[in-house]
Write a structure and sequence with these properties.
This protein is an alpha+beta fold. Helices cover 29% and strands 9% of the residues. It contains 9 helices and 6 strands.
Length: 259
């Protein structure tokens, strides 16, 4: 066999080996991405996770244009899709830039330009660990409340009386309708492990259901009908019996031995 032919075959085998190895590596990354959990905190204006992953081209422009440089790109082998941006509040919270430069830098709309005000961002929701929060233990802290950029709306304080002291407990309460998920409260929390965390809304919020009618939250007329005429005679009969509870009813179950 000639030297040129042997060199050609060697190079061909090397190329095939490299192609196979690259294919296996790429397949591994795709499997990792398919198993990735949507627990990431994305930049302001991010689309829902599935839509965001489909629209994001992993260009890193949002990371470059982030003034405090808190955004990171997910490296290979992690739990998030490779190359997608995220931030970790404990080490770098979103500083709520009014002009939202990261969103403006996104070329695909993965960070939606529909977000006009940074206060309307919903990157996640703050959740308090009441077992380790200093305020819930009766200590004066309130740092999360003081540091919140939407003070008095996203986090408020409730006064709870204490039986063993004249001093009240100042309990922080998070309001989902105002919390942006910026993570400033997480970074400011003085406990060794933050007693307040930012989590995706889907992990911590339920849904009451459309079939419930909460009249006090509606401006329009509640259409549910209620016929009080059927209940009125019963109410009158009970009210007129001033001598005592009606035997055999739930109001006299202690004397009658049951219903």
């Amino acid at each position: 066999m000639s030297t040129h032919r042997r060199d050609f075959l060697v190079r061909m085998m090397q190329g095939a080996t490299l192609a196979t190895t690259g294919g296996l590596g790429w397949a591994y990354l795709l499997r990792q991405e398919a198993r990735a959990q949507p627990f990431a905190l994305r930049p302001p204006g991010a689309l829902p996770e599935a839509d965001f992953n489909a629209a994001c081209i992993k260009c890193g422009q949002c990371v470059i244009d982030c003034p405090p440089l808190i955004l990171k790109l997910q490296p290979a082998g992690g739990l998030l899709p490779v190359g997608t941006p995220y931030f970790e509040p404990r080490t770098g919270a979103c500083v709520m830039c009014p002009d939202i430069p990261c969103m403006k830098a996104c070329p695909t709309g993965a960070l939606s330009p529909a977000l006009k005000r940074i206060e309307d961002a919903r990157m996640g929701l703050a959740v308090i660990d009441i077992e380790n929060c200093l305020s819930y233990k009766g200590l004066r802290c309130e740092i999360c409340h003081r540091e919140c950029p939407i003070k008095g709306k996203a986090i408020t304080l409730e006064l709870h009386p204490r039986q063993t002291s004249k001093h009240a407990m100042f309990i922080p309460i998070v309001h989902s309708d105002a919390c942006t998920g910026c993570g400033i409260c997480v970074k400011a929390c003085p406990t060794t492990e933050a007693a307040i965390r930012i989590l995706p809304h889907a992990l911590v919020q339920g849904k009451i259901g459309e079939h419930y009618r909460l009249g006090w939250t509606r401006d329009d007329e509640v259409t549910q009908t209620f016929d009080a005429s059927a209940a009125a005679p019963v109410l009158e009969e009970v009210a007129n019996k001033a001598a005592g509870p009606v035997k055999g009813t739930a109001t006299d179950y202690l004397n009658d031995g049951g219903l």
